[in-house]
């Protein structure tokens, strides 16, 4: 036998109440009877399982209208059917406008009553499904602290959610300011390591000669100035997550040690002979093309594959313009709270400006721009700044050929020579400076007899 469905019957006429109760009981409803609006509210509060109400319109001092208002204000998923006096269509209209699902005009047949209740049940289910859907949608507007609703961001969210439960290494790519560190933090926060440390390191900011001891630790006396044992970042992040930003900047020597950690789960501090076990999840990021660096012999291929178990690409802001209004709202709120200043209103022309700008510095640039706007509240200056950035980006992007032209061979030779001079004859570094592979660099040196 199907479990009876709880229903609240609100009818102030004792005889009617008993009659309708009997009809409903026979149709497998579990009836809670109330004789006034106040009575009904008390019953609703004490029986959270009630999802259906059948109420009379006229109820002493109050009316069905007050009950509908109360229920809808509580946003409860409750189906409501109202019984109105014969001929009072205006009450029926009012009831529906206020959120009742159906009405019955008195007198009504048993069959009509059951049909109206079935309709209200259906409407109720739809409301519930809609609310679940919209709460899912609003979840997808943001994952931890990452805001984004564009389809490309939804893919990012899905991937983060899928791999956050694992300890898989993730290589996060994307231009500067696209939220790579934010994604790494989200991966950590959604993992079961979230209570353990999250350590972010900018590999490009550590001097090459200190990188090994910074990351893997060092024993006292291992190098000049090591007056005591030094705990490496990996050991500090034990059981947690380490985020290696600008991983492309690590020297080949450090890359080798990192590979050993990823393969064996051990580190050897500088000056130590023993290996130490470390349980750390490694996340890495780079805005450089690591695959190209592998081809150029600047990044270990085996390490690249170890890091790139799960690739995660953060799209540039210009490819998800639809997210800009949401981000603007987020940053205006954040900075106005941070500085205790009321958020300024954006004019529609400024908004258009912000939407059409191509944001070479991505979300970071948008955030900085809005921080300045909150502080200065100067729309003209903001527009000017954006225009200047756009112009300078354009000038930087293009090399201006002198009007008289140039001797290409001489120009190339000059660049090679200057790069060598600047890097003290170090060909690997000189090649990097010119953004060409080491092989290409050697080839060009030979071409110009610069060997
Ligand atoms: N989707 C986003 N939602 C909200 N804030 C964001 C988003 N993306 C980036 N930000 C904010 O923009 C700034 C830059 O983000 P983050 O440092 O994560 O970028 P990044 O890609 O790691 O940059 P870099 O390569 O220069 O280190 C931070 O203040 C971050 O909070």
TrEMBL record:
Modified residues (4-aspartylphosphate): 56
Transmembrane region(s): none
UniProt keyword list: ATP-binding, DNA-binding, Nucleotide-binding, Phosphoprotein, Transcription, Transcription regulation
Gene Ontology molecular function: any one: sequence-specific DNA binding
Domain Response regulatory residues, every copy: 6-121
GO biological process, one term: phosphorelay signal transduction system
Name of this protein: Two component, sigma54 specific, transcriptional regulator, Fis family protein
């Amino acid at each position: 036998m199907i479990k009876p469905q709880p229903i609240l019957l609100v009818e102030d006429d004792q005889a009617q109440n008993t009659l309708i109760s009997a009809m409903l009981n026979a149709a497998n409803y579990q009836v809670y009877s109330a004789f006034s609006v106040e009575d009904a509210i008390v019953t609703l509060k004490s029986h959270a399982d009630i999802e259906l109400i059948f109420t009379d319109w006229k109820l002493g001092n109050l009316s069905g209208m007050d009950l509908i208002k109360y229920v809808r204000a509580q946003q409860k998923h409750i189906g409501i059917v109202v019984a109105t006096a014969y001929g009072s269509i205006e009450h029926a209209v009012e009831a529906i406008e206020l959120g009742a699902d159906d009405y019955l005009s008195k007198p009504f047949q048993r069959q009509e009553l059951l049909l109206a209740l079935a309709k209200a049940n259906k409407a109720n289910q739809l409301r519930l499904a809609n609310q679940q859907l919209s709460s899912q949608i609003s979840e997808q507007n943001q994952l931890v602290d990452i805001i984004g609703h564009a389809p490309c961001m939804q893919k990012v969210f899905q991937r983060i959610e899928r791999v956050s439960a694992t300890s898989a290494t993730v290589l996060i790519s994307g231009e500067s300011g696209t939220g790579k560190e934010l994604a790494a933090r989200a991966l950590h926060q959604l993992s079961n390591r979230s209570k353990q440390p999250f350590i972010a390191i900018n590999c490009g900011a550590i001097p090459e000669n200190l990188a090994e001891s910074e990351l893997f630790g060092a024993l006292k006396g291992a190098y000049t100035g090591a007056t005591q044992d030094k705990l490496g970042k990996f050991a500090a992040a034990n059981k947690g997550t380490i985020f290696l930003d600008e991983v492309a900047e690590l020297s080949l020597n450090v890359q080798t040690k990192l590979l050993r950690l990823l393969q064996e789960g051990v580190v050897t501090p500088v000056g130590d002979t023993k290996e130490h076990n470390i349980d750390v999840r490694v996340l890495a990021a780079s805005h450089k093309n690591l695959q190209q660096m592998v081809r150029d012999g600047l990044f270990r291929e085996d390490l690249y594959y170890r890091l790139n178990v799960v690739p995660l690409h953060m799209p540039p802001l210009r490819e998800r313009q639809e997210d800009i209004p949401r981000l603007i709202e987020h940053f205006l709120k954040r900075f106005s709270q941070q500085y205790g200043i009321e958020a300024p209103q954006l004019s529609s022309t400024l908004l258009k400006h912000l939407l059409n700008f191509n944001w070479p510095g991505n979300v970071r640039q948008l955030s900085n721009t809005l921080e300045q706007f909150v502080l200065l509240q100067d729309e003209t200056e903001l527009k000017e700044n954006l225009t200047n950035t756009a112009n300078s980006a354009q000038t930087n992007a293009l090399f201006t050929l002198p009007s008289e032209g140039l001797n290409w061979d001489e120009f190339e030779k000059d660049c090679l020579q200057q790069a060598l001079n600047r890097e003290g004859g170090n060909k690997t570094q000189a090649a990097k400076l010119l953004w060409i592979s080491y092989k290409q660099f050697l080839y060009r040196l030979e071409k110009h007899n610069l060997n």
